Amino acid sequence: RKEVEQDPGPFNVPEGATVAFNCTYSNSASQSFFWYRQDCRKEPKLLMSVYSSGNEDGRFTAQLNRASQYISLLIRDSKLSDSATYLCVVNPPLRGNNRLAFGKGNQVVVIP
Amino acid sequence: DAGVTQSPTHLIKTRGQQVTLRCSPKSGHDTVSWYQQALGQGPQFIFQYYEEEERQRGNFPDRFSGHQFPNYSSELNVNALLLGDSALYLCASSGTPDYYEQYFGPGTRLTVT
């Protein structure tokens, strides 16, 4: 079973709409969770960390459900500049380890 | 403040050849990790270097090896290249081996023909 699973999409979203997607992770002892954004042919960049209580950063909201082992990302009022691939990332639970396990990514295309 | 830099940007090699990719970490960072990202996939962890030693390794064959220098820069070497090694190779640096926040370089795009 893969460490992180995501449905790659693409997710075609009208400008101004809301889009949400999830990913699941296999190791229930994982402690750190993130969403990274990757633009076409560029490196991944940290979008936001995901906390147990859920967190919001402007139009972006991340949630963590430990019982079901999934992480979600919601984008409100989508902008054309939000078009990118959103990578779900988990830090597996090994002491002294910051290896990141990535999902395939959710490709988002915001349409005018 | 310089971010993570990688060289070269692009590289074309033939099957069976060997390649060396280079990475300089972000200023103040001493830990370097390497990832391979095939087209349409998420990055896959290759290995991590700290204090000039390989600390962790992902599920990659011994054809993939690395090195870290006293100035914290790092090299990734791949021997006996296969077509399947074609990918974007990303270097990420962090302040310590167990601090989760990593900064990625722009990557080296390797094409094996």
Describe the structure.
The complex is a heterodimer of chains A (112) and B (113). Chain A is mainly beta. Chain A has strands at 4-6, 11-14, 19-25, 32-38, 45-50, 55-57, 60-65, 70-75, 84-91, 101-102, 106-111. The N and C termini of chain A lie far apart (38 Å). The model of chain A has no long low-confidence stretch (mean pLDDT 91). In chain B, strands 2, 4, 5, 6, 9, 10 and 11 form a seven-stranded mixed beta sheet that branches. In chain B, strands 1-3-8-7 form a four-stranded antiparallel beta sheet, with no helix packed on it. In chain B, a hairpin with a 6-residue loop joins strand 4 and strand 5. The model of chain B has no long low-confidence stretch (mean pLDDT 94). Classes of the chains: A mainly beta (112), B mainly beta (113). Chain A binds chain B through residues 4, 6, 8, 32, 34, 41-46, 49, 87, 91, 94-105, and chain B through 31, 33, 35, 40-45, 48, 55-56, 58, 88, 90, 92, 94, 96-102, 104-107, 109.
Helical fraction of chain A: under 10%
Sequence stretches where pLDDT stays below 50 over 5 or more residues of chain A? none
Q: How would the global form of chain A be characterised?
A: globular
The major pleated sheet of chain A works out as: 6 strands, mixed
List keywords for this structure.
heterodimer, A: 112 residues, mainly beta, 6-stranded mixed sheet, 5-stranded antiparallel sheet, 11 strands, B: 113 residues, 7-stranded mixed sheet, 4-stranded antiparallel sheet, 50% strand, globular
What order do the helices and strands come in, and which of them pair?
The complex is a heterodimer of chains A (112) and B (113).
Chain A: E1 4-6, E2 11-14, E3 19-25, E4 32-38, E5 45-50, E6 55-57, E7 60-65, E8 70-75, E9 84-91, E10 101-102, E11 106-111
Parallel strand pairs in A: 2-11
Antiparallel strand pairs in A: 1-3, 3-8, 4-5, 4-9, 6-7, 7-8, 9-10, 9-11
Chain B: E1 5-7, E2 10-13, E3 19-24, E4 31-37, E5 44-50, E6 53-57, E7 64-68, E8 74-78, E9 87-94, E10 103-104, E11 108-112
Parallel strand pairs in B: 2-11
Antiparallel strand pairs in B: 1-3, 3-8, 4-5, 4-9, 5-6, 7-8, 9-10, 9-11
